[in-house]
Amino acid sequence: MPNVLVFAETRAAGLRKVALEAVTAARAFVDSAGGGEVHALVAGPAGAASHAATLGKYGADVVLTCEHAGFARYAREATAATLAERAKKGYRAVFVPFSANGRDLAARVAARLDAPLASDVTSIAAAGDAITVKHPGYANKVIIELTIAGPLAVISIRPSAFTPAEKPKSPRGESVAPAADPGAERVVVKDVVEGAKGKLDLGEAPVIVAGGRGLKAAEHFKLVEDLAAAFGNAAVGATRAVTDDGWRPHSDQIGQTGRQVSPQLYVAIGISGAIQHLAGMRTSRTIVAINKDPEAPIFKVADYGIVGDAFEIVPALTAAILEARKGH
Amino acid sequence: MKIAVCIKRTPDSESRFKVAAGGSGIDEAGLKFDIDDFASYAVEAALQINEKQGPGETIVIAVGPDAIQETLRKAMSMGVDRAVHLKAEAAPFDGIAIAKALAAELKSGGFDLILFGKHAFDTGAGIVGTATAELLGLPCITAASKLEIAGGKGTARREIEGAGEMVEFSLPAVVTVDEGIARPRYPSLKGIMAAKKKPMEIKPAQLGPLRVTVKAMELPAERPPGRIIGQGAAAVPQLVKLLQNEAKVL
């Protein structure tokens, strides 16, 4: 009866989608391994306990809440200490999202526990005394299957690899004291500069509209932004050429050295499809490409390609999407 | 300042990969290997810090088989002063084991700053730098896209999915670096000649037992071949129909 401890990541007092994905992954793992409990730990300022119902809806049997004003931002040392301390209470595995902060946390917790860690996994299975996981390595070009030995494993979960699935439980609540003072961090967060208000993150947006050099100038990104706005649930991404030229911030870069994304829909505008860019988006569910060069490699991976002038096609598509979404 | 940079040797990221016979690794035949991109940013960042701060020492360290020595020499040709090769049969996939070997070496080195790439291209795991910091008991900043060091203190910026986190910390510390921190220099001819005479210490890597091991590797399922549905704005209505009825994403 393996129990799994999940780190339910929050941001600005809200639960992140990756938290529900990790709970979903834990529920599926525990159920397939013959039953056991999923315990979700939330660290946040006062009010964090309010996430218990949502975590229960996705399959958490127990919700552990660690409330402290110092958890309003990512307190890396105190969060690691608290998660590691709890993990000593007889769990088979600790699941953490492979987000920017989750990957930091997973390595800290594994080192503190002297437990093996597998990162960025897309599937998890019990295999006798061991756990096997799959992890896309070499920039998604090779799927690596790893065996994790030992009684306690730390596993970080690739964002978007698991779709949050409801599996309602009536979770027991428990409050947990911080195992270290979040006010005494050696790495002090001075500020968190939020992106544009209401802007969806590339890792969480169901739709991504991305632009490349084919747009010819920074100001033409307006076309990309307008199309993203028409979808209503889209984030804007860019190729490395575009971010290197300063048309867009580095944080918008999708590709091997930027963000690796798997949205429901990826719309590539004026993107030729260099191998480094494909490494960041080839796992998207549906890919649309608009490019003037019919030989562009992006058309080899695009489910739907349109050859032609982006300056003519994109405004027409924006209008058509707005029309199609009327009444939504 | 005394700065250590832990680096990795990885295959050219533009390569087409094949799974080796036996299925538990990639076929290395014909692949070009070099210093990992993120590790090269870390080397450059270290060199720039020491150039700005005045006299210091920059050291590179790597775990792996003998082939890693070529990569360590490359870092020295960029300007690093000396190298430590922690010898292992192969660079394992167990990041915690690598962190233990590095921490054992770094522990008594008296470093002010220890830099890593945020992850390496091959495993993409992002474990080693942060875990090494924990084992050493040092403050750690993961995936810094900006880094300033002055007066025994550091400030850094991290990109955290749609937001930037600005942090402050005191030295000694461990920082893993993201893209954008520094553009790596090319080794000069003089640098390449000088690197041949720079010291390289070789000792066994104290990895301990490996608990994360490769069971199999496979190539991902190919996407169905791409389809061009039309030309110009005239194809837009059909695209919208396909997105609604076939892909069901609208």
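Chain A has a mean pLDDT of 94.
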